[in-house]
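User: I want to check something. If I give you two sequences, will you return the structure for each one separately, not as a complex?

Assistant: Yes, each is folded on its own. Here is the first sequence with its structure:
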Amino acid sequence: MNRRVAYIDFAKGLSMCIVMLFHIKGILNVQYGTIVENLLFSACMLPPFFCISGLFFKEHDSARVFFLKKVFRLLIPFMGFYLLTAVALPNFLHYYFGMDFGTVLGWPSLWAFIWPGEYPNIPLWFLWSLFLMNILFWIICRISTKWFPNHRIPAMIAMVAAFTLLGNIAGYALTQDIATLCKTLQNLPFFFVGYCIAKRRDVFILNTTFINKRLLYLIVTLPAVLFAAYLPSLLSHESVVADIMLFYIQGIIGIGFVLAFSAFFDHVRLISYLGRHNIVILLSHGLLVRLCAPIVVSLSQAIGAHAAIIALWLLLIAAYFLFIVVLRKILRLFTLFNPLIYRIFA
């Protein structure tokens, strides 16, 4: 396995482990302290995922080819697992076994990811958001190339900034994020950062000759990530602008730290394995966490909330080394629709 794939997979696996911990701790509404919350869950969880997606963005395909690729890789897995884990299975468990997830049931569960209501497998929003973001960013690339060929990058920066501003305004003004459009626009800069990194061949992230200095990059990013952890305590949080700035400062620092950390520890193949199959984990862990909620509650009464959360987290990580094999086969079932969809749009 080459160095680039190894540490990118490690970065995805590391971020996915943090995502699982975040959702597990949500069962008991436990906080892990200011530094941990700011460092792990604000800086190192979602921004690296969006950045890595931007790293591998391909803009040269035609509109039809690009759209079909994103439908096959993102939309079909999302819809398949949404119908299975957020509609069919929760309704079946509720009506036949009395299990209540505290979410939308019945026909409204079919469109709960758009409006309105909460569905049992919340992490699926990322795949849907990533589909929307790819389509939007392809449009941004085409407009900047066709209309501003001599000022392409400034035009892209201006459009990304405009959409990001729109997303933040809407996010604070609306009580409901319709179809996660606000989150998509708010996280667009992290995707753009990944795209820009991929265009710079002299940046260490895509240049294997620079990876030999990976310890240096890790050391350099440590003060920055500590700054990101303590930054919220330095701000009054009385200003919406300050909160927005904090969100992006922490995100950018988190991206740099996760990539540097992954470049140094990419020899830990177990985390890289999880990273290679991060989509499978993303699609399934939300429902697994909800199913395990009674176990966490009972266990917390015996060993404490924090210990119970860590115990389930480690158990799920270990279990996925078995689950991934089965879940990959389920995911392949949804690809059976690809030829039909290709004929419709071809």
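And separately, the second sequence with its own structure:
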Amino acid sequence: MSFEMLRKLENAEFIGNDFAIFRKFDNYSKFVYPIRLHSTIFVVTVSGTLSVGINSKQYVVQPHSLITVLSEHIITEYEPSSDFSGLFIVVSPDFLKEGLPQQVSVVAMLLHTLNFPVVSLNEDEFNRLCDSHKALYDRVLLQDHPYRRDITRYMLTSIFYDVSGIIKQQNQTKEIELSRQEEIFVSFLKLVTDNCHEQRSVKFYADQMGLTPKYLSTTVRNASGKTALEWISEMLIMHAKALLSTTRKSLLEITQALGFANQSFFGKYFKHYVGVSPGRYRQKNNFMKKN
């Protein structure tokens, strides 16, 4: 599924090829299943039923449910009833990373969602998510607003926190059960979040966890689809983007805060992963300068 195909929907609103929001999905029959998405999709079911296959498991989704489809999911079937309606949000990986909270509790929720993509909502949760969808839809309609993208990103982060809280509350009587691989991954990610500005070697994290680098790398890849080094680099780049876009620190101060030997090395590292220099990224994305 691509954003270009979604643009054929009559009631959809877009922010480039990063974000789409709509209330009806009619051209599902045009896709050839199974399909793997390159985006994350949130669906709140309003009426009717939906038969959907996710990672070879079949779900008959009732009204007042939340479906979260991640890029790691494979959809094998999508069959709505004639009276089905829902609220849809589609987010590209890059746009999601811009606003995604990185707390380990939220990462655990994402891992839980990999295995349990469908959640039932009580009346209050359902109404709250419907209100959030409408508010977000209304903001996206502000085509000429200079901060439309920023508003959308921050509202999306708020929705993500709400969804995380709903799942956590539903599991408060029993901890979300993670496999041994997932437990190692969550612990690894917490260490990376706390130390990536100083430590970028897999060996450091393996030593901290009492594991061999090879075992840690294999486990992280099996649990998340990415290598340990990719997670370290990705988390470091997210730290860098946050400092560049939300602070007035100089490039030298950011270089030092992220543990790079000099500004030149930081610039080459950042450009390798982002495609532009830190200075160019700051010019385009610095929220502090906009305010």
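Because they were folded independently, the notes below concern the second chain alone. The chain has two domains: 3-170, 181-290. DSSP finds 13 helices and ten strands in the chain.
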